[in-house]
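Tokens as discussed.
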């Protein structure tokens, strides 16, 4: 299959996803949530809308223009996908197939339904994908690997795949930098970065850097619309558990009834908790971010990613800053 044909197939997939009938979408959402209760209808729809942004034909052409993909040799690339949010592994799927390789996908047990759906839709578009896109239990036949997981699993992947080309991704989280001069609208959009997908994604904000003396009243007021997250039983269980721990241990924290905020130098906060850390100056903040850059997926704030856009990466924005297409081109 030529590169131009692969691009056309994925742009067609984007159009099909945009035009799903209401009953098709509803059935897909129900099946996905049955497989993973975090995958609510809203989350699944947001994820589908997010990947259709990738699948614009002009954007795909612009994306691949800087690479030599027509001459890429056909390799078997094993992808171990995460399952923390719906279709989180889709960019790797797209990258491997657009690069002209054969995909051996081991999806997370938490995201089986949606990945199977994407495969079937591609096969309907072009039957070649029946051979090019395989969902497997074992990756023994792969020539190269892309694996995403926890810090512990990443260490295992590094050892297991050490003799073959690989990209290994471990835990990362995202942060926001506040100055105290943010508008209510900006803080509301920041709430979207915190609560979309219930905060389960590595691009969700899990920590705030704030100046000394920062008061959270305006932030709490601006995010009140996101109170609905507390209606999800798993989110509520996490909130109740973390709140009880802080109360029993008499740990100072702020609480608005569905979000707990507490001071911590840690970068990854539990579900329903947002950490904060004070900074002294712009220079000290730059130093902190530089020292911790290997653990930060993205930064939101003035001069960084705009508020409300953490879960809207462009097709040429790569996880952990590692150029996936360059890696695939080199195989």
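Sequence:
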């Amino acid at each position: 299959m030529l590169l131009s044909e692969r691009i056309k197939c994925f742009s067609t997939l984007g159009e099909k996803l945009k035009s799903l009938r209401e009953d098709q979408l509803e059935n897909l959402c129900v099946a996905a949530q049955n497989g993973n209760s975090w995958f609510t209808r809203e989350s699944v729809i947001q994820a589908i809308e997010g990947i259709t942004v990738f699948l614009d034909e002009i954007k795909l052409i612009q994306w691949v223009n800087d690479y030599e993909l027509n001459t890429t040799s056909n390799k078997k690339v094993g992808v171990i996908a995460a399952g923390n949010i719906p279709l989180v592994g889709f960019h790797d799927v797209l990258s491997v197939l657009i690069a002209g390789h054969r995909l051996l996908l081991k999806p997370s047990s938490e995201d089986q339904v949606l990945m199977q759906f994407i495969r079937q839709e591609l096969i309907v578009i072009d039957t070649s994908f029946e051979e090019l896109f395989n969902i497997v239990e074992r990756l023994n036949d792969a020539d190269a690997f892309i694996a995403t997981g926890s810090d512990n699993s990443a260490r295992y992947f590094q050892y297991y795949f050490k003799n073959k080309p690989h990209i290994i991704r471990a835990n990362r989280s995202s942060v926001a930098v506040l100055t105290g001069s943010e508008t209510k609208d900006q803080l509301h959009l920041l709430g979207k970065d915190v609560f979309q997908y219930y905060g389960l994604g590595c691009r969700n904000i899990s920590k705030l850097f704030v100046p000394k003396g920062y008061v959270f009243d305006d932030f709490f007021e601006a995010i009140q619309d996101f109170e609905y997250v507390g209606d999800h039983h798993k989110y509520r269980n996490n909130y109740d558990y973390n709140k009880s721990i802080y109360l029993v241990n008499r740990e100072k924290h702020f609480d608005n009834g569905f979000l707990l905020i507490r001071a911590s130098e840690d970068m990854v906060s539990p579900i329903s908790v947002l950490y904060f850390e004070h900074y002294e100056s712009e220079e000290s903040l730059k130093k902190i971010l530089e020292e911790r850059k290997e653990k930060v997926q993205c930064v939101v704030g003035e001069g960084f990613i705009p508020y409300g856009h953490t879960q809207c990466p462009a097709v040429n924005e790569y996880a952990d800053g590692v150029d996936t297409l360059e890696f695939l081109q080199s195989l």
